[in-house]
């Protein structure tokens, strides 16, 4: 029988070592897995986290290892490249930091009493392994489980792209289903047979069959469908390898019976019924842990995603832990799974995209939650016409369809990618990452953009794979684009919900992001090293107001929520208070006095509240209630105003004569005047000269070529906001530079 022997405890670790050790160095640190060496420096900003090689070492004693014919070391996640040494010999190299890989170490373990395992892990920069450019931290480490799998000489294949040797393909036919089960066995002998058992969710045997065949088709009558969150019913397939009645090895996997399609007019169809996919994207990292998560962390993430009412998750931008895919099956989430082919196409990285796609599909084929395989994300940052880029996508698209004839392909296109770009026509479906209202433009542009695409390409299912804006513990009664306040984020998502959720042809929407996540290159919002677009903070301790905006639309759990609980001190005499609820009516009380009952079909209730002294607010909806406190102050509380850690200029130093421009105005508005255009072009030329150049000589910023689409997006930024982000572009900008520009702008009249 197969035995899985966990090896997570007590590994010697060093970032300082320069060669593979021949014995455990007692001066190294000792760590338990999962572990990441960037759990702290990958989240504190500066883009200076350690990227290079580190070593993990562990000694196995033969007496502690179960007896078996063959031994395989299994690594569930090592980022991003690994060399495995056993007793000083290099046995395997693996590229790709998010998938399972295994190595046969039988000869080495049987050679002596002690076995020395060393893994050289490298998350450094190269031109062959994805990802290399992206807006998240590439945490180095062995950050998932390591096991020693002990099996008989005849066993289910452990070496084929990290799979478990079992492939299950259900096909729904009316009230029945055909279940094709394929097994992959190594060293199967003529006196051995396979016993196939299908069990229902309660553990009752539905079908049992013994045969020598490695491919068997079963028919199940009156099946119980997997119905997403409504009813995520799961069956189990167990296959045992028998010799004279004795079980030599066994594998099992759960599966679900469901059919689906994606209709360009009606959106997602599950088991013949419209099933709107409205949900979130998820990065797997956590504050202080990086990617080194335990099961309880995954459980908490899933609980929060279910609470918000999501029906779908985009698992970005890489393969996630098998434990989380299992949770998706159990909780009925519809999943977009993708490889980290992201941001910048590398001509030398094609083989790695193929390998990572094969691993993703082989290891996750049996999950009923997965409905689309993602080919790439924002891969046209340097343009959409590169022939090698297009060929790579055709290869991946064809590969997916050859490996999995039951699922569709998709991709996440960057906002500036033209609708008529050839790459958009390659996958079965497509989604766009749009940030109108945050990175340029305004919120009202989102819905009309999708209408235009849908009108132009009515047969292509279109979705929104990313949208969002950043919010920290900053507050205002006058939210503005780019202010990083919780109030603007709430306003932004109210607007996007109204526009996206009412267009049922949009096949899926995924908020960017469910959780704040590590992005060490970022220096925005007053807390460096994170992307703060999450509906929940990175430590999972605070649900921002926008979380409840989605809960009001998506969840069936009755509730009422008063926004702005962290915004207590307010200067205005009448202040706006927003309440979210999925119930039809809300009444708000101020110090016990009713301010009236409101009805809102869009679940967003707005009240004008007298602001005198200290006011206790209580909102009621049916039997549910929530409370908060506001307080009248004469001077704005500066604790609520954004203070950049790396700020070179404070807000009160900026002069803003009425009717004239300042660095607080949008670049697009400034350049719409002749004088403004001259001033900004002069300033921009000086900045562009500091930028690195791409291969064709164009200036490049944050991985983007500064093409027309990029420049149009930048027009939606204020000069000051762009200045706050400019550090990530390797541009040196002083306080004096900005004040000098502000003086010039103060002389130019607005239209």
**Strand adjacency order, main sheet:** 31-30-29-28-27-26-25-32
Molecular shape: globular
What count of domains describes the coordinates? 5
How many helix segments? 13
The CATH architecture name of the largest domain reads Alpha-Beta Barrel
Helical fraction equals 10-25%
Mean pLDDT: 93
Q: What is the rounded Rg?
A: 28 Å
Class from helix and strand fractions:
alpha+beta
Beta-strand fraction estimate = 25-35%
Mind telling me the CATH superfamily name of the largest domain?
Glycosidases
According to CATH, what is the topology of the largest domain? TIM Barrel
Question: What is the number of strand segments?
Answer: 44
Name of the level-1 CATH class of the largest domain: Alpha Beta
Cα end-to-end separation: 80 Å
Unreliable runs: none
- Largest sheet report: 8 strands, parallel
Notable traits:
Jelly Rolls, single chain, 751 residues, six-stranded antiparallel β-sheet, eight-stranded parallel β-sheet, alpha+beta, 44 strands, Immunoglobulin-like, TIM Barrel, globular
């Amino acid at each position: 029988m197969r035995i899985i022997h966990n090896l997570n405890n007590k590994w010697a670790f060093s970032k300082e070592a320069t060669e593979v050790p021949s014995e455990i160095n007692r001066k190294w640190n000792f760590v338990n897995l999962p572990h990441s060496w960037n759990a702290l420096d990958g989240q504190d900003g500066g883009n200076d986290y350690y990227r290079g090689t580190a070593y993990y070492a562990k000694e196995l004693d033969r007496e502690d290892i179960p007896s078996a014919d063959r031994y395989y070391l299994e690594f569930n996640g090592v980022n991003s490249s690994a060399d495995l040494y056993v007793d000083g010999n290099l046995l395997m190299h693996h590229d790709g930091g998010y998938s399972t890989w295994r190595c046969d170490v039988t000869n080495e373990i049987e050679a002596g009493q002690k076995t020395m395992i060393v893994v050289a892990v490298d998350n450094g920069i190269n031109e062959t392994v994805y990802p290399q450019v992206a807006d998240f931290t590439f945490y180095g480490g062995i950050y998932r489980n390591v096991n020693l799998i002990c099996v008989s000489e005849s066993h289910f294949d452990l070496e084929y792209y990290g799979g478990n040797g079992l492939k299950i393909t259900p096909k729904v036919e009316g009230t029945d289903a055909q279940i094709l089960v394929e097994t992959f066995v190594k060293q199967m002998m003529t006196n051995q047979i396979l016993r196939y058992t299908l069990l229902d969710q309660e553990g009752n045997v539905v079908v049992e069959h013994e045969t020598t065949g490695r491919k068997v088709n079963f028919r199940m009558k009156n099946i119980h469908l997997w119905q997403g969150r409504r009813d995520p019913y799961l069956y189990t397939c167990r296959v045992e390898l028998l010799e004279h009645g004795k079980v030599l090895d066994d594998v099992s996997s759960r599966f679900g019976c469901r059919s689906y399609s994606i209709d360009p007019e009606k959106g997602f169809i599950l088991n013949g019924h419209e099933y709107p996919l409205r949900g979130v994207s998820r990065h797997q990292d956590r504050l202080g842990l990086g990617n080194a998560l335990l099961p309880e962390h995954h459980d908490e993430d899933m609980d929060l995603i279910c609470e918000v009412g999501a029906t779908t998750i985009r698992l970005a931008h890489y393969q996630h832990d098998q434990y989380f895919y299992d949770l998706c099956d159990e909780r009925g989430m519809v999943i977009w799974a993708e490889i980290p082919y992201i941001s910048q196409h590398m001509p030398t990285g094609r083989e790695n995209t193929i390998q990572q796609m094969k691993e993703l599909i082989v290891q996750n084929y049996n999950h009923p939650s997965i409905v689309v395989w993602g080919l790439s994300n924002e891969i046209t940052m340097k343009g959409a016409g590169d022939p090698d880029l297009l060929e790579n996508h055709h290869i991946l698209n064809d590969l997916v369809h050859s490996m999995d004839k039951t699922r569709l392909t998709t991709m996440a296109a960057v906002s500036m990618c033209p609708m008529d770009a050839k790459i958009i026509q390659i996958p079965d479906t497509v989604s766009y990452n749009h940030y109108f209202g945050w990175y340029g433009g305004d919120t009202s542009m989102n819905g009309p953009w999708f209408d235009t695409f849908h009108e132009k390409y009515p047969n292509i299912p279109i979705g929104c794979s990313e949208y969002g804006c950043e919010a920290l513990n900053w507050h205002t009664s006058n939210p503005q684009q780019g202010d990083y306040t919780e109030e603007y984020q709430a306003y932004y998502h109210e607007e996007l919900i109204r526009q996206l959720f009412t267009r049922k042809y949009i096949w899926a929407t995924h908020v960017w992001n469910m959780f704040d996540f590590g992005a060490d290159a970022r220096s925005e919002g007053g807390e460096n090293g994170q992307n703060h677009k999450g509906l929940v903070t990175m430590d999972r301790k605070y649900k921002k107001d926008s979380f409840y905006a989605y809960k009001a639309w998506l969840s069936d759990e009755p509730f009422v929520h008063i926004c702005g609980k962290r915004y207590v001190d307010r200067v205005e005499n009448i202040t706006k208070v927003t309440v979210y609820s999925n119930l039809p009516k809300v009444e708000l009380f101020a110090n016990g006095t009713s301010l009236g009952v409101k009805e809102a079909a869009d679940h967003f209730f707005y009240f004008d509240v007298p602001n005198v002294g200290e006011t206790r607010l209580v909102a009621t909806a049916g039997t549910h209630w929530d409370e908060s406190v506001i307080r009248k102050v004469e001077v704005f509380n500066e604790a609520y105003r954004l203070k950049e850690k790396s700020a070179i200029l404070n807000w009160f130093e900026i002069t803003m004569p009425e009717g004239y421009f300042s660095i607080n105005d949008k670049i697009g508005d400034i350049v719409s005047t002749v004088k403004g255009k001259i001033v900004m072009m002069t300033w921009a030329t000086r900045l562009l000269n500091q930028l690195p150049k791409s291969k064709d000589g164009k200036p490049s910023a944050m991985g983007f070529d500064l093409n027309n689409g990029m420049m149009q997006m930048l027009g939606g930024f204020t000069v000051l906001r762009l200045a706050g982000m400019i550090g990530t572009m390797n541009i040196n900008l002083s306080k004096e530079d900005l004040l000098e520009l502000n003086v010039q702008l103060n002389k130019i009249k607005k239209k």
